[in-house]
Amino acid sequence: MLYNVQFSQSHLLKSPQGQEIQRLFGITEEELTDQVVVPPSEIQLGQITYITGLSGSGKSTLLRQIQKKHTDAFWVKREIDESLTPIEFLGAETSEALSWLTRFGLGEAFLMLKPVYQLSDGQKFRLQLAKSMYQQQNCMILCDEFLSLVDRQTSQVIAYNVQKICRRQNIQLVVATAHRDLQSSLIPDVVIRMDLNGVLSVDEDKGVNWQAPLFSKEDLKIERGEIDDYFQFQRFHYSKGDDDKLIRSDLLDHVVVARYGELTIGVALITKPFPKTLESIPLFAEINQSIKVSERVVIHPSFRGCGITKLLQPMVSGEVKYIFSQSAFGLKVNFKSVSQFQEVEHPNKKRNEPWQEYLHKSEHENVTEKELQSLLVQAAVLKRKRYLHFFIQLLKKELADHEVQFVDLLLSHVQRDLQNWPEAQLIEEARPFPMAAFLKKLL
Predict the structure, then answer these.
(1) Is 179 helix (H, G, I), strand (E, B) or coil?
(2) Which of 144, 147, 223, 226 is such that its CA lies 20 to 30 A from the CA of 232?
(3) Distance from CA of residue 326 to its chain's centroid?
């Protein structure tokens, strides 16, 4: 739709102070009644229109004029219900809410559980923006002060995700902001620039490639990192209890990082299925050589939802046949599919009978501590045994009799070792933790 834009504002100052200012600067009633804000201009809105200019140049006024021609347009609201948590705020199923919050830099587990009143103003705005776009399709959305309260790095990612949502849901978006750094990430069809005199300059680009990656290969580097890179991101991962075990038990194989310029924005811990000390045994040496585990993949919340996860892949040799990964997040959002992973049945999905018996008997006073400890040890051993059999079956190995005997002997040693663990640590080791499992075949 083509717009002929020219509008003015009326200021009727009736207060004593207003009249005093009017006399001080010699402003007439006629000047107040018909103050031109935007001179005659002709514009055409695109699917995404980006209005920018200095404060006071008329951006908000132009948005209101657009609304007069589109009375059914939806404004992104500023009022917000602060009694809810972000995961409740959208009114969506958990899996859908997780996916949407992630696109707006709000997909960090602890943040999703905070009451809204504890969020920053920038986080509240993103939450409102997420809800507005979740609820609307095939419509026009107007947004003033678009990402004005959000840091510029995060704004780039949010703008990129917003434009993809608009094009997939047939949303016509018109945003206004004083920030001029969003054009490359918002990828607008139309850019309207306003100077301090209200003069408009309009650029149109109908051939935009909105599916292009946000980051160029020159800006984003995927490379091997150090364990210190992971420690910077440790607070963003929901499961920190066994980090020491991963890092200090010679399970760690290597670290992969994503760097945007000098800023580290993502990290992956790649581990072996079994400790290196077991590689003197041919069976475990073959498993560790053929399979790597993508154990931890952590993206900074500000950079989630723009394709970084699929880039943080293990850097492996040609001998590696499979990459295994497991994730609680994956139970709700199958994010691994974009990285050519296939979901498989988790090794410990089946019922763990010793653990269930432990839960049942721990409620009764006539059960001895030794009996409860024995159930915990059995549950922990069963978890490890299932992982071992999963990897053996994955390689389609038929164990020789001596290998079967060795596995049984190893598990008996593990069982004796677990009997000396403190109760709290043993409970953590035995407790089944629901996770989705994914597998990527390389050869």
Answers:
(1) coil
(2) 147
(3) 17
Contacts 24+ apart (CB under 8 A), 336-345: 336/438, 338/307, 338/309, 338/310, 339/309, 339/310, 339/313, 339/440, 340/440, 341/438, 341/439, 341/440, 342/438, 342/439, 342/440, 342/441, 343/436, 343/437, 343/438, 344/437, 344/438, 344/439, 345/437
Place of tokens 């994010």: 335
**Shared-domain flag, residues 18 and 126:** yes
**Sequence-separated contacts (24+) of 360-368 with Cβ below 8 Å:** none
What CA–CA distances, in Å, run from 386 to 251, 389, 423?
18, 5, 22
Question: What are phi and psi for residue 59, nearest 5 degrees?
Answer: -60, -50
Amino acid residing at 95:
S
CA 244-245-249 angle, 5° bins: 115
Q: Which of 162, 137, 136, 138 minimizes the C-alpha distance to 150?
A: 162
Range of the domain at 433: 326-443
Quick check: is 215 in a domain? no
**Inter-CA distances, 17 with 21, 26, 35, 90, Å:** 6, 14, 20, 45
Over the stretch 121-167, which tens digit does the pLDDT of each residue have?
Answer: 999 999 999 999 999 888 999 999 999 999 999 999 999 999 999 99
Distance CA 233, CA 244 (A): 14
Asked if residue 213 is part of any domain, the answer here is no
Joined together, the tokens standing for residue 232 give: 């910077």
Rounded to an integer, what distance in angstroms lies between the CA atom of residue 156 and that of residue 308? 14
Tens-place pLDDT, residues 44-69: 899 999 999 988 888 888 898 888 88
Asked if 307 and 345 sit in the same domain, the reply is: no
Q: List pLDDT tens digits, range 349-383.
A: 999 999 999 999 888 878 889 999 999 999 999 99
Has residue 437 been placed in a domain?
yes
Convert 291-322 to b/e letters by CB count within 10 Å (16 or more is b).
bbbbbbbbbbbbbbbbbbbebbbbbbeeebbb
| Domain count within the chain | 3
User: In the β-sheet with 322-327, what is the strand arrangement from edge to edge?
Assistant: 220-224, 252-260, 263-271, 291-299, 322-327, 436-441, 342-344
Assess whether 311 and 332 both reside in one domain: no
**Strand spans (E) along 244-321:** 252-260, 263-271, 291-299
Do 126 and 186 belong together in one domain?
Answer: yes
In a domain? residue 397: yes
